[in-house]
Design a protein that fits this description.
By secondary structure, the protein is an all-alpha fold. It contains six helices and no strands. The mean pLDDT is 92.
């Protein structure tokens, strides 16, 4: 029997699951980072690493499952699907966290940070900005866990679709032609 190559969607699902696990482990650092700045810094740097990891996974897909050649459009679709599956994976973690664990912890942590900034604000413009942030936090605090999760899905899809363009551009490669 022939070995059947996985489809683009199957591969994107597999790589997207790996990326989703990475995002979930990264997300765990965020609430812990509210108390420990080192963990929040680690979360930030791991977030910056996401496009590079996406590039390496897409390059691995190109080399292992596409025979070393891939068009821009195929690479773009792979990256979009990979990030979509990663988003679906991490959304489950987001929902579980905000539904059962958070209890307003993140919003109250930000509110206490803003209160500290409010005490050292030196200009009226700074105080007005802090008040705007407080109003925005109040709106976020009023969201249900499912609304927060849906908001995070839309943000992930938006940013990842932007990341997909340069990733596909750098990963694309024409097939090697044999010379006689």
């Amino acid at each position: 029997m022939e070995d059947k190559k996985p489809t683009l969607q199957e591969s994107a699902m597999r790589y997207g699951t790996a990326m989703g696990i990475f995002w979930t482990l990264k997300f765990v650092l965020f609430p812990m980072g509210m108390e420990n700045p080192l963990l929040l810094t680690l979360f930030f740097f791991l977030t910056l690493a996401v496009p590079f990891i996406g590039y390496f996974l897409t390059r691995k897909y190109r080399n292992e499952e596409c025979g070393g050649a891939i068009t821009f459009s195929r690479a773009f679709m792979f990256v979009i699907f990979m990030y979509l599956f990663a988003t679906l994976f991490v959304t489950i973690a987001h929902y579980i966290y905000f539904r059962f664990m958070d209890n307003g912890y993140i919003v109250s942590s930000y509110e206490s940070m803003l209160s500290q900034f409010d005490t050292i604000a030196t200009t009226e413009e700074m105080r007005a900005s802090i008040e705007q942030f407080k109003e925005a936090l109040k709106m976020v605090g009023d969201l249900s866990p499912i609304e927060i999760s849906m908001q995070l899905i839309s943000q992930n899809i938006f940013y990842c679709s932007l990341i997909a363009i340069p990733t596909a551009f750098f990963v694309k490669r024409k097939p090697q032609t044999e010379q006689s």
